[in-house]
Backbone:
């Protein structure tokens, strides 16, 4: 069995392996993805994330005989890494919202989706809000990072071209979201998350930032944050000073993330 796994690992080029894994996940998730905001749709989405996205990651690792710890890089991170990842997740949000605003100039689908999502989230409270946070922030941040920045990115970087690996894995992440509303923002977020993994050496930094991005969209309306930052709720232009400041913060924090590498406990 071990010999068979080694033969597979040697015979299947990295590009073919990553493409096959991505196409499989894309097709199955497109087929099973919920088409509306509902409790049944949330449960379906959770099962899809766990079984298809995370499950495919473990299946590919198992079939090819790859070492799980080398692919997933679930190395514990220091408190400073954790805090930096949280801040990076927060500061990327204005750029994602501005990307949504840019897309809204060409498609009304952005407005319709934003209205439906905000209406559904704002009508939730208590344990239902906790369930939404779990299903839309926690589980996707874990499962999608395992697949895209764990399996896909770390297979692609074996070619030695980190820039190409980051771009390709990020484009795949954007396409995976299928809905035109999310393709560009998801690609942009994927690039930042990929940089976090390559610089920190741990997938946990990307999971933390990913969670913060999703959680901000969910929790902002419930804590009055949208009254101060209306672009978190409405598809409007993000003020240039905020974009400028958040952009500087992202570059600064990424630099600090590299400088603190190796301090994980």
Residues:
């Amino acid at each position: 069995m071990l010999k068979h796994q080694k033969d597979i690992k040697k015979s299947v080029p990295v590009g073919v392996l990553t493409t096959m894994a991505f196409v499989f996940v894309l097709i199955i998730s497109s087929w099973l993805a919920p088409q509306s905001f509902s409790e049944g749709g949330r449960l379906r989405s959770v099962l899809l994330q766990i079984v298809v996205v995370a499950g495919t990651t473990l299946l590919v690792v198992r079939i090819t005989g790859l070492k799980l710890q080398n692919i997933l890089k679930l190395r514990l991170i220091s408190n400073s890494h954790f805090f930096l990842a949280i801040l990076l997740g927060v500061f990327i949000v204005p750029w994602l919202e501005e990307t949504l605003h840019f897309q809204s100039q060409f498609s009304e689908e952005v407005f319709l989706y934003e209205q439906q999502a905000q209406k559904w989230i704002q009508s939730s409270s208590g344990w239902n809000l906790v369930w939404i946070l779990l299903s839309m922030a926690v589980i996707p941040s874990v499962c999608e990072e395992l697949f895209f920045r764990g399996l896909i990115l770390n297979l692609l970087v074996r070619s030695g071209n980190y820039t190409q690996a980051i771009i390709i894995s990020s484009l795949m992440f954007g396409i995976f979201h299928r809905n035109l509303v999310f393709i560009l923002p998801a690609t942009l977020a994927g690039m930042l998350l990929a940089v976090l993994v390559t610089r920190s050496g741990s997938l946990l930094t990307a999971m933390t930032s990913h969670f913060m991005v999703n959680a901000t969209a969910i929790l902002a309306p419930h804590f009055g944050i949208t009254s101060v930052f209306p672009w978190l709720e409405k598809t409007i232009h993000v003020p240039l000073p905020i974009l400028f400041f958040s952009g500087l913060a992202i570059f600064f924090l990424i630099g600090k993330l590299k400088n603190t590498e190796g301090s994980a406990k």
In short: The chain has one domain: 2-259. Residues 126-156 form the longest helix (31 residues).
